[in-house]
Amino acid sequence: MSTAAAPTARTLADPDTPFAVVDVHRARRNIARLRARADRLGVALRPHVKTAKSLDAAALLHDGGPGPVTVSTLAEAEAFADAGHRDITYAVGIEPHKLPRVVALSRRGVTLRVLLDSTEQAAFVTAAAREAGVALPALIEIDCDGHRGGLRPDAPGLAGIARVLHDAGCLDGVLTHAGESYFCHTPEERREAARNERDAAVAAAQRLRAAGLPVPTVSVGSTPTAHAADDLTGVTELRAGNYVFFDLVMAGLGVCDLDDLALSVVVTVIGHRPEYGWIVTDGGWMAMSRDRGTAAQPQDQGYGLVTDLSGTLIPDLVMTAASQEHGTLTARNGAALPELPIGTRLRLLPNHACATAAQHHGYHVIDGTRGTAAPAPAVEAYWPRVTGW
């Protein structure tokens, strides 16, 4: 674990609150779980680094060395290339203004795949590749459910786009993402989403191959479907990112348990409003984000569940309201508010790990297996985050 540029902190009692914490033991366990599943399914794993956005966290993914990753920003791609990663997929639709940065990475020997779903995008990618004299591999996005982007597998224009890319040496394959799987509340619903995701990508690949076009990459994945898939025949790689940290949305779907959540935010009690049944902390939506992803689930977890500093859940205590720098904790199910004096430090488990992590510059890293005899868990490292676009 890196300690470069680490703030001085021996334990979770030291830094000013709020700040983000990662339990490295839980993260390692989460990583090992999906790696084993990908191995059983016979596909390569291309983790998405958009959740942690951390080179130190990514070092856990490939046994300390560089490996294939998925990114959501060119800033991530550049930072990971600087650290030695040479096999990167940029899984957001490409636009012309960003192509000079893509070309620059390609000239450094980085295989950076771009994503597109239109003839217009294919034209400017291939023009840039020819002008620069570099390979710019492209994946065609396939819409398997959510309609955010991509072409349906039977779209009339699919082969035409692929042909434009192929003629310029840019066709790399197809990619899809089952975004609707985040609303699948039963194991069978998640398995069906995984099957649909696979079938859409494979059908698109088969259409292109039938047209005489090569399709080396057939890429699928989301955290819910990656953990539900039971047959990935025809798929070459699996993508997921949230699984490294997990969060309350994933726990609410049944993809993980609460004790798998590796990310939390430390806050401090700064006030009491007993007439309203409130405990007030210094962690508002600037620390937790405004994400309310569990509001659509059977159990609404507010802005997050509450643990003590050692990570033990405080029953029925929930962060139910937030302003910019204030968080409100209340009791549910008729429970009494616990006695938490001003100055008490707590940890909050977030709804959406990606959104909460994005509020912080880095993570104070602990190992939850090392016991809690001390007043506060020891900080073993500090992992900076990649920021910006």
From TrEMBL:
<dbReference type="Pfam" id="PF01168">
    <property type="entry name" value="Ala_racemase_N"/>
</dbReference>
<comment type="similarity">
    <text>Belongs to the DSD1 family.</text>
</comment>
<dbReference type="GO" id="GO:0016829">
    <property type="term" value="F:lyase activity"/>
</dbReference>
<dbReference type="InterPro" id="IPR051466">
    <property type="entry name" value="D-amino_acid_metab_enzyme"/>
</dbReference>
<dbReference type="Pfam" id="PF14031">
    <property type="entry name" value="D-ser_dehydrat"/>
</dbReference>
<dbReference type="InterPro" id="IPR026956">
    <property type="entry name" value="D-ser_dehydrat-like_dom"/>
</dbReference>
<dbReference type="InterPro" id="IPR029066">
    <property type="entry name" value="PLP-binding_barrel"/>
</dbReference>
<protein>
    <submittedName>
        <fullName>D-threo-3-hydroxyaspartate dehydratase</fullName>
        <ecNumber>4.3.1.27</ecNumber>
    </submittedName>
</protein>
<dbReference type="InterPro" id="IPR042208">
    <property type="entry name" value="D-ser_dehydrat-like_sf"/>
</dbReference>
<keyword id="KW-0456">Lyase</keyword>
<feature type="domain" description="D-serine dehydratase-like">
    <location>
        <begin position="262"/>
        <end position="367"/>
    </location>
</feature>
<dbReference type="InterPro" id="IPR001608">
    <property type="entry name" value="Ala_racemase_N"/>
</dbReference>
